[in-house]
Amino acid sequence: MTDESGDARHLETLDRDLARFSNLETATNMVARPMVGIGISFLFIMLAGLTASLFFGLTNNGIIVVVAACLGAYMALNIGANDVANNMGPAVGANALSMGAAIAIAVIFESAGALIAGGDVVSTIAKGIIAPESMGTSATFVWAMMAALLSAALWVNIATWIGAPVSTTHSVVGGVMGAGIAAAGFAAVSWPTMGTIAASWVISPVLGGVIAAAFLALIKSRIIYREDKIAAARTWVPILVGIMAGAFAAYLALKGLKKIIKIDMPTALIIGAIMGAAIWAVMIPVIRKQSEGLENRNKSLKVLFGIPLVVSAALLSFAHGANDVANAVGPLAAIVQASQSGDFTQAVSIPFWVMIIGAFGISFGLFLFGPKLIRMVGSQITKLNPMRAYCVALSAAITVIIASWLGLPVSSTHIAVGAVFGVGFFREWDAERRIKKARLAMPDRPQYAPEERRRRKLVRRSHFMTIIAAWLITVPAAAVLSGGIFFLINTAMG
């Protein structure tokens, strides 16, 4: 009996020890996971530098290019960690994609977009923000581009850490502006260009939000609030998918395929209209078959929007890779050209090895650090389902087309996050409208206290304020960082 009780005590002690080991292992994993990500990132940055050294050796100019390649790799990692969340967040938040599937799709399509359609000829100074001649010498230009690249990467890194999706385009713009001012004074900056960029801070999210809210209103009025939801869906879902297909065809023709073929706006719209009509015709029998046996309730409608949402996320990733890879490697390509030839006033083509660094960096950044911002955009601002997420994706494509037509510089980040806010605020307005309607029908119905009504808001105000604040200070913060870094580099090298 004594032996048995001793064995029991021994087993209890063993269980406690094993539990401690289990807790220790969990804690170690939690601590080690960020360190693994940082370690892999560091190795990738070193590999980018090694790649540059194979092309340029370790001469004076070669060392400059190696350092610039490391900075370009660091920037690409940060774009992957922050910017790509805007494309995948809605699909993950709506449970149309798991986090793993979203990352896999994004990695494939971001890389394909960057390598197939990216690398359009970029100006030596991003977006024509400062006059290249004002730089004086190629050495000054190179230090300015170095400062711009590092400051933009640091700012996006800080924004990702605090959980704010910011525009990497605006970060690069701020970096270039700050370095330009530090190098050549305020007169070097093209202030009209900066004015249009500042205007886009307001235009991008508002336009994205209004378009997303308009499509959600259409879905609610034509499908969700109908007595026979399934019959309404058979009519409207093929139309909506056709609109999405047309918008993405025009978007990709206009923005994503510039390297392969130049297409003007009227041609892009014709391509979009033809593709939209074709997909609408194809989707009619598909949706009819998919809707067979579905119950007449909102949950059933989610099934019909799942696949279009996944496809839209993939297409957004392709277009993002094609367009935004230049944010990571445009300044790097300019440094490469200036170091090779001493010419820094002409347009520059991005070498393929530089494109590889940009494409792989975005993919690694997304894989290692992307989930935090994907969760923020997908579920922490407002609750998304496939219909709402579909409205966000569609809004992103249509807004870019409208902005291109109007000649406005817009940010894909601001559009997508603005669309999420638009969907959330529309839901709040619609819920309030329905409550008022019900109150008129039933005056005796109990009402919520003001505090309870505030608590039931469908958009988290804390996230809203954090993101807006981050947007407002992105350009000045990157500019101040860049100016400071330029002075440090110039002093050290002078």
UniProtKB/TrEMBL annotation:
Any one GO molecular function term: phosphate transmembrane transporter activity
Topology in the lipid bilayer: Multi-pass membrane protein
Any matching Pfam family: PHO4
Keyword terms of this UniProt record: Membrane, Phosphate transport, Transmembrane, Transmembrane helix, Transport
Transmembrane segments annotated in the record for this chain: 35-56, 62-80, 92-117, 141-164, 171-191, 197-219, 231-254, 266-288, 300-319, 350-369, 389-406, 412-429, 464-489
Signal sequence region: none
UniProt-listed GO biological process terms: phosphate ion transmembrane transport
Record flagged with keyword Transmembrane: yes
Subcellular location: Membrane
Primary location group: membrane
UniProt similarity note: Belongs to the inorganic phosphate transporter (PiT) (TC 2.A.20) family.
PANTHER family: PHOSPHATE TRANSPORTER
Protein name: Phosphate transporter
Source organism of the structure: Yoonia litorea
